[in-house]
């Protein structure tokens, strides 16, 4: 499990480790918007995979709530960038996140039953933990626009809730 | 008042009691709790048996008010939900989907 988690963790370590591909050490608002949106899309995709694969009611319900919340937060993000006239800018961190997620998706695709359930939920715990760390230490402090910063702060509270929810589900699966 | 010797009196008493019982809920209060950006406000409320709580969800997210091992009120995005308090006690509640949201209800008799 630890080995499987390292790909996602490594991608996010790009955000946390100071090894950022950003000019001037910190991401710009268009880059932050892109990273946050990408992180949401990744979890929506993971949720869709879980809904299609899992037969566990608790896991499916958890995945449905991830799908619902991340779509809702991303819709708010899209509305905000439109209002602010900001075009999200792709960047190496977004690319690394997407690539790690794709690797994870293929790994999970090989699993079924409780093996899948456990691996999906454990990855959800790890993924939210990493994204929350990135939000707290890099994305929120770097955001220049007050409305973007505020949306990221609300996002952090939502995702901290997801992390706890995922931890509860992981405990139930043990 | 002796109901045994006065059946009519007994019936009137029952009527009166019935009316009184109907009056009680009218005195009960509705206590509003607003949810805004994943916070129940106020987080702590004091109520009496017969009161109702109305949660007003201002978020674009689905929340719940879930008492562990007890009642659960589903609060759809931008909607509200109510709970009638019918037993005294002290209850912690959370949102099932965001367990970092916490509230407390103290229900007096």
Structural class of chain A: mainly alpha
CATH fold-level topology of chain B: Immunoglobulin-like
Number of helices of chain B: 1
CATH superfamily of chain B: Cupredoxins -  blue copper proteins
pLDDT < 50 stretches of chain B? 1-5, 10-16
- Catalogue the unreliable spans of chain A: 1-5
Which term fits the overall shape of chain B? Answer: globular
Q: Percent of residues of chain A in helical segments?
A: over 70%
| Share of residues in helices of chain B | 10-25%
Count up the helices of chain A: 6
Side by side, the strands of the main sheet of chain B go 3-9-8-5-6
- Summarize model confidence as the mean pLDDT of chain A: 90
Strand content of chain A: under 5%
CATH architecture of chain B: Sandwich
CATH top level of chain B is: Mainly Beta
Describe this structure in words.
The complex is a heterodimer of chains A (174) and B (109). Chain A has 174 residues and is mostly helical. In chain A, α1 runs antiparallel to α4, α2 (29-53) runs antiparallel to α3 and α2 (29-53) runs parallel beside α4. Chain A is built from six helices and no strands. Helix content of chain A is 83%, strand content 0%. The longest helix of chain A has 30 residues, at 113-142. With 109 residues, chain B is an alpha+beta fold. Chain B is 19% helix and 42% strand. Chain B has one helix and nine strands, in the order αβββββββββ. In chain B, the strands form two sheets. Chain B has a five-stranded mixed sheet, with no helix packed on it. In chain B, 22% of the residues are buried. Residues 1-5 and 10-16 of chain B have low confidence and may be disordered. The interface between A and B is medium-sized, with 16 and 13 residues.
Helices and strands in order, then pairings?
The complex is a heterodimer of chains A (174) and B (109).
Chain A: H1 2-16, H2 29-53, H3 57-84, H4 92-109, H5 113-142, H6 146-173
Helix pairs in contact in A: 1-4, 1-5, 2-3, 2-4, 2-5, 3-6, 5-6
Chain B: H1 7-27, E1 30-35, E2 40-41, E3 44-48, E4 52-57, E5 63-67, E6 72-75, E7 80-84, E8 89-94, E9 102-108
Parallel strand pairs in B: 1-4, 3-9
Antiparallel strand pairs in B: 1-2, 4-7, 5-6, 5-8, 8-9
């Amino acid at each position: 499990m630890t080995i499987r988690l390292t790909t996602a963790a490594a991608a996010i370590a790009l955000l946390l480790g100071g090894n950022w591909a950003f000019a001037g050490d910190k991401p710009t608002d268009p880059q932050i918007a892109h990273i946050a949106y990408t992180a949401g899309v990744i979890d929506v995709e993971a949720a869709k995979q879980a809904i299609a694969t899992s037969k566990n009611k608790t896991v499916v319900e958890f995945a449905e709530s991830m799908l619902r919340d991340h779509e809702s937060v991303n819709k708010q993000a899209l509305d905000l960038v439109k209002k602010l006239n900001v075009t999200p800018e792709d960047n190496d961190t977004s690319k690394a996140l997407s690539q790690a997620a794709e690797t994870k998706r293929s790994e999970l695709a090989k699993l079924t039953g409780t093996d899948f359930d456990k691996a999906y939920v454990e990855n959800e715990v790890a993924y939210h933990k990493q994204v929350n760390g990135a939000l707290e230490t890099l994305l929120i402090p770097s955001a220049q626009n007050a409305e973007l910063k505020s949306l990221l702060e609300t996002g952090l509270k939502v995702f901290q809730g997801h992390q706890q929810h995922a931890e509860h589900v992981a405990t139930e699966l043990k | 008042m002796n109901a045994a010797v006065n059946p009519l009196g007994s019936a009137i008493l029952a009527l009166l009691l019935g009316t009184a019982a109907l009056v009680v809920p009218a005195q009960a209060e509705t206590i509003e709790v607003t949810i805004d950006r994943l916070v129940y406000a106020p987080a702590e409320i004091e109520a009496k048996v017969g009161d109702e709580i109305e949660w007003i969800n201002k978020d674009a997210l689905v929340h719940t008010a879930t008492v562990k091992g007890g009642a659960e009120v589903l609060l759809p995005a931008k909607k509200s939900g109510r709970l009638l308090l019918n037993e005294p006690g002290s209850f912690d509640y959370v949102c099932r989907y965001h367990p970092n949201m916490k509230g407390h209800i103290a229900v007096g008799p």
